């Protein structure tokens, strides 16, 4: 087995999601830093296979990347952003072949000494899958939970649910979660030591992110908006922030769920950057005067790049499994930002204070993560 390690996390599971890809990249880099040769397991459930409609018939494709390539090339629906996502993954993430069943995952992992799960919301009960609780493999394989998320008070489950996942977690040698709230819930049901560790994206230095970010040719100053929910209702607020930052342009990118691009582009102050892949997304935050977001990773990269930022509540017509403000509040506490950042109305803008990044300590997060990874090393 040598020092091979498998990583079970989300990686391009059918959505345009910058945070998903970048946390996967960071997790792989972190595992490699501690002496393992990582392999990210490309997995989604069998029923999540996608169908490509073309030439008058439905054709099932077993490879999501191939499907997206066909959509972009064969079907003439060219989407530069999709291709940039694929390019970033192929150049920066070591992937297994595509798996759809637990048996296929187990086969891919049989030569791995350590099985990691995390980070991201892989433990969210609303999208439960026991593969992400590492419910497969041999007893000799070490199991490590590194910053999985998804167990929160607002989606508390039945006693039976926690009893079920308790059986899985008892097989783990090291258990860490991303939020304090999750740790508190687990401690009621699980005897093992539950540690809290930062999202892996926070454990890479700014320089490391610059190494995989793009070079922009944007001359004018701007604020950057990244919303997973609707942000047209915040249009007036965003313009107020723009003026307070003394800029005249608001660049934005969206996941494509809500088609607000055409309407906002008609406004002279807004400009869509929806061709941005992960590398371009990093650059848009890096070079912005300020960032407005309802996204967890939008917040994290604002902190990494030491930006003034504003957090908005997720505006969706349905219950979104990731729209939990406790996640943002938890990460802000951990990095030492205690000032008001949440924006709900114009009055909230008056409460926003300047962030002094000299008082923000990311080094302590790395030291906490290092202790956890050293525990993994000592037992392998």
Keyphrases for this structure?
globular, Polysaccharide pyruvyl transferase domain-containing protein, Polysacch_pyruvyl_Trfase, Rossmann fold, 14 strands, 14% strand, six-stranded parallel β-sheet, alpha/beta, 380 residues, 2 domains, 14 helices
What would the CATH topology of the largest domain be? Rossmann fold
Going by helix content, strand content and strand pairing, the class is alpha/beta
Number of helix segments?
Answer: 14
What percentage of the residues does DSSP assign to strands (E)? 5-15%
Query: Unreliable segments (pLDDT under 50, ≥5 consecutive)?
Result: 49-61, 74-78
Report Rg: 21 Å
The major beta sheet can be summarized as: 6 strands, parallel
**What string, H for helix and E for strand, traces the elements in order?**
EHEEEHHHEEHEHEHEHEHEHEHEHEHH
Helix content: 25-40%
Mean pLDDT, nearest integer?
86
What is the β-strand count? Answer: 14
Principal-axes shape call: globular
Assembly of the depicted chains: single chain
Task: Provide a descriptive summary of the structure in words.
The protein has 380 residues and is of the alpha/beta class. The chain folds into two domains: 4-204 and 365-378, Rossmann fold (3-Layer(aba) Sandwich), CATH 3.40.50; 208-359, Rossmann fold. Helices cover 35% and strands 14% of the residues. It contains 14 helices and 14 strands. Strands 2-1-5-6-7-8 form a six-stranded parallel sheet. A six-stranded parallel sheet has the order 11-10-9-12-13-14, sandwiched between helices. Strand 1 (4-8), helix 1 and strand 2 (37-40) form a beta-alpha-beta unit. The longest helix is centred in the N-terminal third of the chain and has 16 residues, at 18-33. The radius of gyration is 21 Å and the shape is globular. Mean pLDDT is 86; it is low at 49-61 and 74-78.
């Amino acid at each position: 087995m040598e020092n091979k390690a498998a990583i079970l996390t989300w990686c391009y599971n059918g959505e345009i999601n910058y945070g998903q890809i970048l946390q996967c990249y960071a997790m792989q880099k972190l595992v490699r830093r501690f002496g393992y040769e990582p392999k990210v397991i490309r997995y989604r459930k069998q029923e999540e296979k996608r169908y490509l409609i073309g030439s008058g018939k439905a054709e099932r494709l077993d490879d999501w990347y191939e499907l997206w390539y066909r959509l972009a090339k064969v079907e003439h629906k060219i989407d530069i952003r999709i291709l940039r996502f694929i390019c970033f993954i192929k150049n920066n993430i070591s992937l297994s072949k595509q798996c759809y069943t637990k048996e296929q995952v187990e086969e891919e992992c049989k030569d791995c000494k350590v099985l990691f799960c995390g980070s991201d919301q892989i433990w969210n009960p609303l999208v439960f899958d026991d593969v992400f609780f590492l419910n497969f493999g041999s007893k000799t394989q070490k199991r490590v939970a590194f910053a999985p998320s998804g167990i929160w008070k607002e989606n508390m489950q039945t006693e039976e649910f926690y009893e079920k996942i308790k059986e899985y977690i008892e097989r783990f040698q090291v258990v860490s979660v991303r939020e304090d709230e999750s740790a508190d819930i687990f401690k009621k049901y699980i005897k093992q030591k539950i540690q809290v560790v930062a999202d892996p994206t926070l454990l890479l230095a700014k320089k490391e992110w610059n190494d995989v970010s793009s070079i922009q040719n944007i001359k004018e100053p701007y604020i950057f908006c990244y919303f997973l929910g609707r942000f047209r209702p915040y249009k007036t607020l965003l313009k107020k922030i723009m003026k307070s930052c003394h800029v005249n342009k608001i660049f934005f990118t969206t996941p494509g769920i809500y088609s607000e691009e055409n309407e906002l582009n008609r406004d002279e102050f807004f400009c869509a950057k929806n061709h941005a892949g992960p590398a371009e997304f990093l650059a848009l935050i890096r070079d912005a005067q300020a960032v407005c977001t309802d996204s967890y990773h939008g917040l994290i990269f604002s902190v990494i790049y030491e930006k003034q930022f504003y957090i908005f509540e997720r505006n969706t017509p349905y219950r979104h499994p990731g729209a939990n403000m406790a996640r943002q509040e938890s990460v802000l506490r951990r990095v030492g930002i205690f000032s008001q950042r949440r924006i709900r109305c114009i009055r909230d803008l008056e409460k926003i204070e300047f962030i002094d990044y000299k008082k923000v300590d990311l080094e302590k997060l790395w030291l906490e993560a290092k202790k956890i990874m050293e525990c993994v090393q000592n037992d392998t």
